[in-house]
Amino acid sequence: MEGLLDGFVPGSAGYRYPVHNFDIAEIQAYEDGPLIVRGNFELRDENGELIDPGRGTIALCRCGKSALKPLCDGTHTLIRKRR
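Now predict its structure.
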């Protein structure tokens, strides 16, 4: 599948958006960024209590600096700029 969409820009004629199977959870890690979780998942706190994510796609913090833990608030971009 690599190279299949080379040269196509999202929103342009001929571009096909990635298809996700929302019956299962899909987790994708981004370099120096969050984990993106899509699909059918449950989010729980340290006590096992359900957290309502409010949507079907969320970003989980990996830097540990988010004020919205376990959700990402973009703080990792500020940390990266300070280096």
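The first helix runs from residue 75 to 82.
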